[in-house]
Amino acid sequence: MKELHTFGWYAAKISPYLPKKAFQPVKSRLFGGMVYLLLTIGGILAVSLLNLHPIWNLLISVMLGFNFASLGFLGHEILHGTVVRKPWLRDALGAMAFWPLCTGPKLWRKWHNVTHHVHTQDEEMDPDAWPSLERLTKSRLLRWVYKIPFPIRAFFAFSSLSVMFTLHSIRMLVYFFKDFRSKNRSVILLQFCLPWATWIGLLLIIGWERWFFAFLLPLFIANFIVMSYISTNHRLNPLVPVNDPLANSLSVTVPKWVDVLHFHFSYHTEHHLFPAMSSKYYPLVKEHIKRMWPERYHEMPMSKALATLWKTPRVYYQQNELIEPRQGHVYGVLGNGLDPDHITYRNVEVVPFSSLEKKPMTMKKAAEKGENNKKDSSS
């Protein structure tokens, strides 16, 4: 692995080349949010009040799902303070944008801004990081999951993208709840319950069939769109001891019109360098990164990134590799031997899963033994 630097180190190198306006809030982003909000309200009203053919309801659902996701991307930007700076207005607008995804602004800022951004790809501190082999041996649930054959597990993993953001948000509420002061806990619960109360209330008013098209199916679609980005942000990158965005993050490429409609959410490395900068200026940041550190920067088409995720496991081995525990197949990660165009693996010796119940730390020892075997074979 190359020498690692903090995001502040990179930002200090690039900042002198950026215009001053790049560090100011961009309130005009709210116009796009207003369009999405009006389309969302109109779509829900159309499904709820009109007796449309199911095909039309399905088309409106797809539009609503796209809107839900795009509003989430805007909410992400708003809650980083890159649209408005006043805290009360930031949180109010962020809550509105995240309303379809049922995530409150206080929880999001604690989970995403304060924890994920500060400890990106730190196995212990980043709540979004995937587990290492050592953590796998300590978790009965993970051991059970990884008994499932890899192809089947990959299929269900991709299918779960349609619900994963919602489920992970609920998990983060439970995970961080105790960290909030007592006076703030009621606010956190209120911000979580109000959106759900709204959507459940809609169900009681319009009935199950229309609610499916007005909210549930759009929520599945939005989850899938949002998680398609989030899954590629870091899951092909190594766990790192230093929060280096050029090592631990991946930017994906999508058609320009998609970039505009999704508020440039694809520029994820750039976002981790300048989280308080509007994504409007990330294409400019990208130009400077590729000029100054072309060999460090990771980017690939979204379709290729998703295909690579499908073909590789999600358990870390020695921090800078990925392992399929059942077979002992070890894959590289970005910057450490992973070639998305030609994915290969090497073998290490692992302990059968049946023995993990009695000796949960055996796999760690087996991993070390496999590493020693690798060294012996190369000497």
Automatic annotation (TrEMBL):
GO terms for cellular component: membrane. GO terms for biological process: lipid biosynthetic process. Signal peptide: none annotated. The chain crosses the membrane at residues 30-49, 55-76, 150-174, 186-206, 212-230. Residues 360-379 are annotated as: Disordered. Keywords: Membrane, Transmembrane, Transmembrane helix. Coiled coil: none annotated. Residues 56-300 form the Fatty acid desaturase domain. Pfam families: FA_desaturase. It comes from the Bacteria. GO terms for molecular function: oxidoreductase activity, acting on paired donors, with oxidation of a pair of donors resulting in the reduction of molecular oxygen to two molecules of water. The keyword Membrane applies. The keyword rRNA-binding does not apply. PANTHER family: DELTA(5) FATTY ACID DESATURASE C-RELATED, FATTY ACID DESATURASE 2. This is Putative fatty acid desaturase.
